[in-house]
Design goal:
The protein starts with 8 loop residues before the first strand and ends with a helix. It has a six-stranded mixed β-sheet with strand order 4-1-5-6-12-11, with helices on both faces. A two-stranded antiparallel sheet has the order 2-3. A two-stranded antiparallel ribbon has the order 7-8. It is α/β, with parallel strands linked by helices and 333 residues long. The protein has eleven helices and twelve strands. The radius of gyration is 19 Å and the shape is globular.
């Protein structure tokens, strides 16, 4: 009798931060945030039959789903810009959510599939609060989504530190070298828990040293800022500004788009100036990376840095092309 071969392995590290700090307005407690499902779900859908996935978070906490990442325009791929403009026009006055959804059946169906994947792989998740300038359709979606998750099991997530320590433990069979690739999705949560995180840095280097492909999208590439850190077996943190990833070509969510999200998008607080502590692309440049962003901020940008097996792309609109490129780079079995 033939024994079925074990599936290849993939690691997904989901940011778990639930609050996005603001530098303005002064004294603001921060905005409810989370991760973007759309920046992970296509990988689960296309590779789920081929791969076994391990899910982790930086601190071992349950990740929070960002309701803003479920806006239908976010599921439009390369047509996201046109879909966003269409949504804004439809929601300007006299908004009817049933008509809005009926006019976008393909996007609704895709979102439904992705939420089903989330339920299957991730179980019950907390959902970020709707913000004053959130898309009107997702504001109405949120309560139904929370209710639909109530009967799902709550999963546990190892922390990145636990993964590294298990990998180092000679009595533990867990091996980071078993993963063909790691994927880190975005949303705004990575701005909180992917940066200044020595264990994220150690994980990225260990995976690189073991030949894994590193896949990052949108705000996820900010994890590379933490690559300046290594963590020795005794827990000592070492900083090296000339590490193996230094100088790599990358892309990420552009400052021009972030400024739009702050002034006119869901991070806008009516009547207030809203500022973040930093921008992703600036942070990557300051950390020594060669950041590539398209002249048209709504265009898709994908960068493959073969020397360190690093694949980055610049936003949820790039997810389909990112996944297709990822597939071509993975081992053929």
């Amino acid at each position: 009798m033939d024994i079925p071969l074990a599936k290849p392995q993939a690691l997904i590290v989901i940011p778990s931060a639930a609050t996005l700090p603001l530098t303005e307005p002064a004294g603001h407690p921060g905005l409810s945030t989370g991760f973007y499902l759309v920046e992970m779900a296509q990988i689960l859908e296309e590779l789920g039959d081929e791969y076994d996935f391990t899910f982790a978070t930086p601190d071992g906490h349950i990740p929070q789903l960002d309701i803003n990442g479920l806006a239908l325009a976010s599921h439009a791929g390369a047509e996201a810009g046109a879909a966003m403009a269409s949504a804004a026009a439809a929601q300007a006055s006299g908004f009817d959510v049933d008509v809005f959804r009926a006019e976008r059946p393909g996007l609704v169906a895709r979102r439904d599939r992705e939420l089903a994947l989330a339920g299957h792989y991730l179980g019950r998740l907390p959902v970020s609060e709707a913000l004053p300038n959130s898309d009107k359709e997702v504001v109405l979606l949120r309560d139904d989504l929370v209710k639909s998750m109530q009967d799902l099991p709550e999963h546990t997530y190892p922390s990145v530190e636990q993964l590294v320590r298990r990998h180092r433990d000679p009595e533990d069979s867990f091996d980071l070298g078993a993963f063909d690739f790691v994927h880190l999705p975005g949303g705004h949560a990575p701005m909180v828990d992917f940066v200044d995180n020595p264990w994220i840095g150690e994980l990225l280097h260990t995976l690189r040293e073991n030949g894994a492909l590193i896949s990052l999208i949108c705000h996820g590439p900010v994890a590379l800022v933490s690559a300046k850190y290594r963590v020795r077996p005794d827990g000592t943190i070492v900083t090296d500004l000339q590490h193996a990833f230094t100088g790599a070509g990358v892309t990420a969510f552009a400052k021009s788009l972030e400024l739009f999200v702050l002034s006119d998008g869901y991070l806008n607080l009516p009547g207030e100036k809203v500022s973040l502590g930093y921008f992703i692309d600036d942070a990557l440049r300051d950390a020594g990376y060669q950041v590539q962003t398209p002249a048209d901020p709504g265009a898709i940008e994908i960068v493959w840095e073969e020397g360190v097996r690093l694949l980055t792309s610049n936003g949820p609109h790039a997810m389909d092309e990112h996944t297709a490129r990822l597939r071509t780079l993975l081992p053929r079995r």
